[in-house]
Amino acid sequence: MFFNSMMDWLNQNGGLITNATLQTLYMVGVAGLVGFVVGTPLGVILHITKKGGLIENTKLNKTLGAIVNIGRSVPFIVLMVAIIPVTKLLVGTFIGTSAAIVPLTIGAIPFIARLIEGALIEVPTGLVEAAQSMGATPIQIITKVLLPEALPTIINSITITLVTLVSYSAMAGTVGGGGLGDVAIRYGFYRYDVAVMTATIVLLIIIVQIVQSVGDAIVRRVDHK
After folding, report:
1. What confidence tens digit (pLDDT) does each residue in 54-94 have?
2. Residue 113, Ramachandran bin (φ over 0: left; ψ between -120 and 50: alpha; else beta)
3. Which residues form a coiled coil (predicted)?
């Protein structure tokens, strides 16, 4: 009896849950990729332009730092509403999976920048000084010393960011952003369907666990300390 009920539920809701899961993975994947493409250089600039940095420029550092801090201080749910004009300009609408990627990406960039900056701070200054003494250029020091040495921490930062984006993507569902969050609100909460709500929660937990496990495995592989 229970098995038949379960099969009936899957026949009715399986397609909906599967599609929502794919939408969540799409949002997180694209926002994470674009976020790191922009956030990583920003984090590097924050690190090398600080006082005593590789290319010291305190004015630039303070300006970028202020922008990053502002971006990090805005709650994601508020950010989604605040940048609706930008979202409509870029994708033509502020509702749907593609539209949700815009605030997800904008929210991820300052978060990633600070994580990358923190990862680079952990690189021993002695390594940088040794590279400078051998005549290495700033670009060479960044690409051959800073980033490779900070790679395990950077990968850990990627993991943290992706897990955070999974949470953000669920929040995006509250304003029609699609994905598992949208299904949880429209079908689980509004229709008081406990089964759908439970299924979305379980899937979000599974996604987070997979991301964290893969990230930890990669860190162990690249960390030679």
Report:
1. 888 989 999 999 999 998 888 888 888 888 888 888 888 88
2. alpha
3. none
On average, the pLDDT of the chain sits at: 85
pTM: 0.85
Inter-residue contact 109 to 42 (CB < 8 Å)? yes
Residue keyed to tokens 């690190």: 47
Q: Which residue, chain included where needed, has tokens 């939408």?
A: 23
The amino acid at 126: G
Tokens of 128: 């940088």
Question: Concatenated DSSP letters for 10-73?
Answer: HHHHHHHHHHHHHHHHHHHHHHHHHHHHHHHHHHHHHHHTSTTSTT--HHHHHHHHHHHHHHHH
Neighbour-count burial of 18, counting CB atoms closer than 10 A to its CB (0-12 exposed, 13-18 middle, 19+ buried) = exposed
Read off the DSSP letter of residue 188.
I
The count of structural domains within the chain is 1
What is the Rg, in whole angstroms, of the alpha carbon atoms belonging to the chain? 21
Cβ–Cβ under 8 Å, residues 49 and 56: yes
Tokens 């674009």 sit on residue? 34
Residue 23 sits in a domain whose CATH number is: 1.10.3720.10
C-alpha to C-alpha distance for 215 and 135, rounded to whole angstroms: 35
The gap between the terminal CA atoms of the chain, to the nearest Å, is 55
